[in-house]
Amino acid sequence: MKDRAVLVIGGGVAGMQAAFDLAEAGIKVCLVERTLSIGGRMAQLDKTFPTNDCAICILAPKMMDCYRHENIEVLTLSEVTAIEGEIGSFKVKIRRKPRFVDEAKCNGCGDCARVCPMGILNKFDMDLRVRSGAYIPFMQAVPLIYALDRDKCMRCGLCEAVCGKDAIRYDQKPEIVERNVSAIIVAIGFDPLDPSGLTEYGYGRYDNVITALEFERLICAAGPTGGHVIRKDGKEVKRIAWIQCVGARDTRDNRPYCCSVCCMHATKEAILTKEHYPEAATFVLYTDLRCFGKGFQEYVNRAEDDYEVKYIRGKPGEIREKENKNLEIFYSPSSDRVEKLEVDMVVLSTALIPSEGVEALAEILGTELDKYKFFKLKDSYNPTETTRAGIFVAGYCQAPRDIPECIAHGSATASRAMEVVLGGSYDRRA
Amino acid sequence: MTEELRIGVFICHCGINIGGVVDVPAVVEYASTLENVVHAERNLYTCSSDGLESIKSAINEYELNRVVVASCTPRTHEPLFRATCEEAGLNRYLFEFVNIRDQCSWVHMHELEKATEKAKDLVRMGVAKAALLEPLEELTSEVTPSAVVIGAGISGMTAALSIAKNGFHVHLIEKKREMGGMLRRLYKLYPTEELAAEFLEQRIKAVEEHERVELHLSASIKAVEGYVGKFKVILDENGAEKSIDTGVIIVATGAKEFEPEGLYEYDGEKVITQLQLEEKLKRGDSKLDGIENVVMIQCAGARGEVVGYCSKICCMNAIKNAKLIKEANPDINVFIAHNELQAYGEEYELYYRDAKKAGVRFLRFPLERRPKVIKSEGKLVVDVFHERLQMNIPLEADLVVLSVPLVQNPDAEKLSKMLKVPLGQDKFFFEAHVKLRPVDFATDGIFLCGTAQGPKDIEESISQGYAAASRATIPLAKGYVSSEAIISSVDEAICVGCGICESVCPYGAVEVVETEEGRRAKVTGVKCKGCGTCGSSCIKRAIKMHHFTDEQLIAQERTALVTEEVVS
Amino acid sequence: MKEGEVKIIGFLCNWCCYAGADLAGVSRFQYPPNIRIIRVMCSGRVDPVIILDTFLWGADGVFIGGCHPGDCHYMQGNYYAEKKIEMAKRLLKEAGVEPERLRLEWVSASEGERFAGVMREFTEEIKELGKIKFEKDEMEAACIAAADYRLRILATKEKELLEEGNKYGEVFTRHEMNRLLDDMVREEYEAKKILLKLKKPKSVKEIAAELNLKPNVVFRHIMDLRRYELIEVHEIRDNTPTYVAKVEEGGE
Ligand SMILES: Cc1cc2nc3c(=O)[nH]c(=O)nc-3n(C[C@H](O)[C@H](O)[C@H](O)COP(=O)(O)OP(=O)(O)OC[C@H]3O[C@@H](n4cnc5c(N)ncnc54)[C@H](O)[C@@H]3O)c2cc1C
Ligand SMILES: Cc1cc2nc3c(=O)[nH]c(=O)nc-3n(C[C@H](O)[C@H](O)[C@H](O)COP(=O)(O)OP(=O)(O)OC[C@H]3O[C@@H](n4cnc5c(N)ncnc54)[C@H](O)[C@@H]3O)c2cc1C
Ligand code: SF4
Ligand code: SF4
User: Fold this and answer.
1) Residue A145: which of A103, A98, A96, A97 has the closest Cα?
2) Which of residues 100-129 of C touch B (CB under 8 A)?
3) What are the tens digits of pLDDT across the range B513-551?
4) From CA C160, how far away is CA B130, in angstroms rounded?
5) How many Cβ atoms sit within 10 Å of the Cβ of residue C121?
6) Residues paired with residue A210 on neighbouring β-strands, in sequence order
7) Contact yes or no for B539 and C149 at CB 8 A
8) For the segment A294-324, what is each residue's pLDDT rounded down to a tens digit?
9) What is the pTM of this model?
């Protein structure tokens, strides 16, 4: 008797879509997410190109649908530590880190967070906001259950004292659970590259050079600044430039690939800036404008015509910080000229790279990675199948793709897993 | 109904999306003064877990029997709030949605006061309707456990095979005599450079061999009837009419190459399209005897020239063909005049570099100054304005290849009408939601994949093919679909059996039947889709369109117009 | 809505126009805040009675938004909507109201920009027409006429009569159809106005004078109304009968 269940690793859009389709088709799903909440990167975004739909507005119902589905078990703060068996009958070990809060009891009131004296940078907000030691990463987190950050906790006992639901558990221990599944879907997404190593951009050294994901948090109404794009010195931006392909399409660090979404997210961010500050000047410095998706060219046209976003072809050779903390960008628009552009903020569209821990996970799963550490496909034109039978891959961790492509890819792997669970198809050939 | 009405109103700030324009606290205060409202509150995000929790706890605490949420749009959030009501023990149809974001705060961003007034009006209207809501139950109906896939290109073949492997019978319908679609006409494929014919052969074999795939070649769709779970597709197969019962339908009809008539001196011989070049290469003409200079022109007819969009595949396709020509015959000069270059993703950038290494020359023109093809005395010159050098470069050419975009098939419009699914402004099939539902149509039970949805490469077409298979398998695997609770019903005491309702219902959901009292109209619940046309046609106004009843609509409209509670 | 501002009520179908209105929002296309939108599943749901009731209650404009011809989620709902709205327009005219105050537009789910444009335009038009003016009795008569089975049959059957002909196989031309509609609408409207006047007992002469109609026309209507048992003889005054409407009649 094969197990009519599937394991999904990673609760971003791709993983959630895969889980949801399978669950709807009557298959049990165990969704393992490393962080406190499902939602993935999309939850961090303000709006989404090319429709400017509010990201969390459209994602939140999906997160809830997933979490509440009778066929989906969501395990947060969890990671896969071992698998045995083969397609049709995998036995999976999952390590659940303690939350130090009783999941069944917490009702998400947040009283613990209000009394906690600790101040810790919130990773979800790209370290731009301080949270307390008892926390949820963001307002719409699913599940809405608080957690204690035990590394930083000084055990003052205030949260325990104040919790009306008696949910604090300082003594919770990590726990290993086992699940039997027929197929596995990996959807662990990406991390933004830390651009400090690319010294020409001055990230980390200059006050007002930030990354695109940091920008998304800044311009988000629910973000650390309530949607205001302000510099370190508290001034609102007046001239702002995006720099594309930072660390991408770059052979130096073996990252020749194009991340596929940054031209459009820069366009989006520039439009959003103009919506907040119609007087601001916005520039996008790029090499090739990748506007290939449905409605993308039209979106770029709107940015140029209606929002006066200025696109400049040219990759900066250097950025210098002035005394007033403004930035001078040097780039060459044609073969015999170097131009200077002064702005008060620079946003780096950094390369997007496979998630931290991808190698360890690939090792556990017994699947191969390609030379950039994306999950390797068994063969070309077969975009769902890893090198191990019964293990499929969805979303950005296979190759760069935007949200709708991740969702389609998530559904695609669901069908592959259905072939195994419903159709009993263990034949590896597509 | 004699129960006391207890309405709860929840008003969402949606961060600043609503709160930044509409004075939410004022609307809450106003709502709490309305008749039958026993509780009104505001939430930063009503759809967040804590927002939903507070709906549930308010239902219990205030014994609410109607819930009104004023936030975004019912099109995305109604299911969530309905489910929340249900969890708290309230019938899901005792919920009313008020849209104060998409149709208020977002469209009146500079008129704060008036937007607040409007929000108040809308809430008042919602409360008025809520007072008249009635509990409803959903019906379920069985699903015919088979699928129809229209179009046997790579995406349709992928979808069909996957559904078959999921355990269900599939009818794969192709208008041509053979499967394969666009790929039949191609030479080699990027980025692997395998022969398209070999690639196809394996895939076609797998489809042909699968016991659950039933092929209908040289077949075209004549008519489509029914609804999710119970479609009937009428085919003309080789001249014979066939009728197929199916639970779901997938549209995988692909796209065609744009014909650049009248552009760039196109003549189909010296100035040809990429597809014509593929066909030439496929005929074994890869050495292109007698040709010294090949110039490819990108975005021909695309990105504002004729169609507005970027066709996604033509850059890579040009790079592929340029590279193949160059490698087969290094003496030929191959130029690609382009604007942007869509060498996106993991592999294409490298492929592009390889083409450069192979000696393909790339020249960039600004989109405002596209190349010109000049034909004189049998000679071709392509005049390219070089963006970086800021000067014109005339290129002599023996062969000019136009990289033209993919465009919708001409017969797609007919199909879209038969299926009642929309085409977008770019004429490609228009999915249910650009971000979240890339392979669904808004109509239940119909899905799409491949280039029918928009230009894309093979890998993505395959990915969508599988995705459509997954979405389509859901109702098949479930075995049933829950149909609308929002349907019409006939008041037999008023009905005179005239049959006008029967004549307007597109689903045959109302029929006049003999009863003891005489002829009366009767509604078949699962067939009814809830459009309400019968109700507005009924000569005796005997038909009630539940959830959108005359009383409810009139209450909304009157309440909108009259600020005080004088409405009767 | 504040007094003085023009008030517009919109009935939008869920699948196309409502979605288009949402897209206008998502894309932040701005338009004047005069409209109050009511969602219906299909434009075909919109009953002329409801439209006229909306005017009766003081709307300065009514907007109906449906799918483009051929795109209707329910196949032909928008076609029927068109016919019903034509009927409502005729009745508006009878009641002395500019038919342009009622507007039907097809807007698809991808036409956010167009939706905002149409809103701007329609609001402007209504502003130019100014606040609505009508005699309450006349608009009420129009409402009741719209509820009457004769006009309802005609509005729905119009297509059939034009394409397939009537029971005798006579196919109507567009022109004949228009005349038939004009006549029927006028008849119904007059009859309903008389019915409303008969809330209080009146003689034929009195009604004819009040409504500025010929006495023989009024008499014919009175006979009809009696046949349908909508009115009864109240008393005989100086050899002249007076009539009165039966209670519980009169529509909402
Ligand atoms: C600045 C920026 C702006 C963008 N804007 C847009 C936009 O406007 N529109 C658009 O379409 N796309 C946009 N994108 C791209 C979009 O974010 C991605 O396409 C999408 O989020 C990828 O989804 P995913 O599910 O593959 O991965 P993710 O969203 O990264 O989700 C992966 C999940 O897996 C979890 N995980 C990771 N490792 C493990 C592990 N070992 N075990 C368990 N769980 C694990 C993570 O915590 C995460 O929850 C943007 C990207 C960036 C960087
Ligand atoms: C010149 C050119 C070169 C290309 N080269 C490459 C390449 O090298 N690598 C790559 O990845 N991609 C390439 N592509 C893109 C590739 O062709 C598409 O991604 C792929 O063909 C899409 O497959 P599909 O199944 O969606 O559509 P199609 O291949 O177009 O198939 C659609 C099928 O549906 C049938 N059909 C249409 N209407 C109906 C109807 N009403 N009823 C029944 N059947 C119908 C058609 O006859 C056809 O068989 C190229 C495209 C072009 C134009
Ligand atoms: S999408 Fe644009 S910015 Fe991102 S790597 Fe590709 S070309 Fe560079
Ligand atoms: S893919 Fe390339 S050639 Fe095709 S339209 Fe886009 S930019 Fe132009």
Assistant:
1) A103
2) 108-111, 116
3) 998 888 999 997 777 888 999 999 999 899 999 999 999
4) 38
5) 13
6) A347
7) yes
8) 999 999 999 999 999 999 998 898 999 999 9
9) 0.80
